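Task: sequence design from structure.
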């Protein structure tokens, strides 16, 4: 069982903050794709980072998550309907929703095939993912140093599932649209502190001695470094759920 996001709920939003303008762009792209009157299930809704602004734009969103504390944050942001449940066993009848939305979730689920089966079972129309490419991001590059140091100690840092963008290997999305380029800075001290305090979920099961060795590596390389660039290219990918269902059947053959 992967560690719960309960541990990070109080800090999650500051580590994943998106400008209001970017959230507005995501809402605009969704509006182009889905009518606001449709019923949307956001699986792994977390703190409502995406669902809350979408709901303010008029979308009818049910937010589902396995972490009680993440959901409490979503409730504080007035996400009107939330549900504590596991994506791999969704408590809904077939086709209960028009669309399913997933943002930075499927990489966390070892049985990602069951997750995709469930998400495409309960929606009748589209599966939408908001994805990030962090090529050229210095903070991500620091993460690779952390991973390499863990590998030196014989520990592989990895997520159990697949990124939403890799669902393209199961079925081709019918639309991929670039939403925004986000670029800002962070001091190397702050970035090191994020890794030291195990902010990122792929760090949660790193043994203490391996973690300490990896953080020492970051201190050696970056402690007196200059500010780091943070870069994220955000896109939206849209699938017909029917194509995902067919792709999953192909996988089983
Ligand atoms: C990285 S956060 C993303 C939250 C939100 N989608 C966002 O973009 O801000 C991943 C969320 O997925 C939830 N999650 C992970 N595995 C889950 C599962 N099997 N069922 C339901 N939620 C799950 C976690 O509790 C967490 O809130």
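Answer:
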């Amino acid at each position: 069982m992967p560690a719960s996001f309960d541990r990070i709920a109080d800090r999650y939003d500051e580590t994943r903050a998106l400008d209001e303008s970017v959230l507005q762009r995501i809402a605009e792209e969704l509006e182009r794709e889905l009518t606001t009157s449709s019923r949307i299930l956001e699986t792994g809704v977390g703190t409502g980072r995406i669902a809350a602004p979408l709901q303010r734009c008029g979308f009818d969103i049910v937010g589902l998550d396995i972490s009680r504390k993440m959901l409490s944050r979503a409730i504080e942001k007035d996400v009107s309907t939330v549900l504590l449940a596991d994506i791999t066993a969704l408590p809904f009848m077939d086709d209960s929703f028009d669309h399913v939305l997933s943002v930075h979730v499927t990489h966390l689920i070892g049985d990602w095939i069951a997750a995709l089966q469930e998400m495409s079972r309960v929606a009748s129309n589209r599966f939408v993912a908001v994805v990030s490419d962090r090529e050229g991001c210095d903070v991500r590059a620091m993460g690779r140093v952390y991973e390499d140091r863990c590998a030196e100690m014989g520990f592989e840092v990895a997520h159990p599932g697949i990124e939403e963008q890799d669902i393209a290997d199961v079925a081709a999305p019918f639309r991929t649209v670039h939403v925004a380029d986000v670029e800002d800075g962070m001091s190397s001290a702050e970035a090191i502190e994020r890794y030291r305090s195990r902010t990122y979920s792929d760090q949660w099961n790193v043994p203490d001695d391996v973690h300490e060795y990896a953080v020492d590596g970051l201190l050696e390389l970056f402690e007196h470094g200059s500010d780091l660039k943070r870069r994220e290219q955000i896109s939206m990918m849209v699938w017909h759920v029917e194509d995902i269902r067919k792709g999953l059947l192909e996988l089983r053959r």
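The mean pLDDT is 93.
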